[in-house]
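Section 5.1 Outputs to date
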Amino acid sequence: MVLYYMRAWGLHPTRPLESQRDMYIHILCVGDVVGKAGRSVLAEHLPQLIQEHTIDFVVCNAENAAGGSGMTPQIYEKLLRYGVDVVTLGDHCFRKADVFPLLDSSDRLIRPANLPSAAAGRGWTVIPGKSGRRQIGVICALGQMEMGNNNSPWAAVDEAMAKMPPEVSIRILDFHAEATSEKIAMGWHVNGRMSIVFGTHTHVPTADATILDGGTAYISDLGMTGPYDGVLGRRKDRVLKFLTTGMPQRFEVATGDPRMYALLVKVSVETGKAESAELLVRHGQRIEGGPYDRDDGWPSQNHHKSRNKQ
């Protein structure tokens, strides 16, 4: 019976446990961090999760971390201190101008690869995990369906993978897209060539975490790391007033019911194939002192636009 359970967990009964631990690494992919509430719940739970699951690498989409839209250098530095290894962005990557120099200088902050080549920053990176045992590649791309006139994500992802050193077998893609169909198609497009493909942008966690037949862990959307007592991270009263009256409203970031959503993936060091994938959720405390602080920067004028999603 003991041997059965060891084999079920991918352990070989004749190998020392120490060497078997070296066969796999655990990677955590964190969903869109939204505003002060999202940063708070991430700071509360990420260090503990890293220790609890012996996580070697954390990639986190944080394009909504600053005031609900964009990124600031202060927030970026704090995310790294919490334990994030690579920060990915999305369609709001250029919302805060003070992050432009950081995009050009940091190899741990990436914007979508299918933006024009003249845009600030890089669309992929390769850095070591926390243990330093393996180099891990990360790519970010924007979808095209309902996402504006972006360059082809298919070509951009293929090009980024071709540029990565061939010895980098563990590769992760953050596909920041609106349409579930496009995300699923991307999963099949890179099946067997990526260790993990996770979707972001919709802020709603999906129930389809799986391992594709080529060994790629896939989920259509990680969901939001932020305030769920609202509408996609915004105050529900403001959104409802806009929807029911048609009158412009400032979609202020919500503060209640902060949760952290993340995909925990076990990956073979030798093959780069995913062995297991599990969506985790952790609950935080309602934040005090309002939805913004000095790390957010001054909320963009775009927050005043009447939109049903930022």
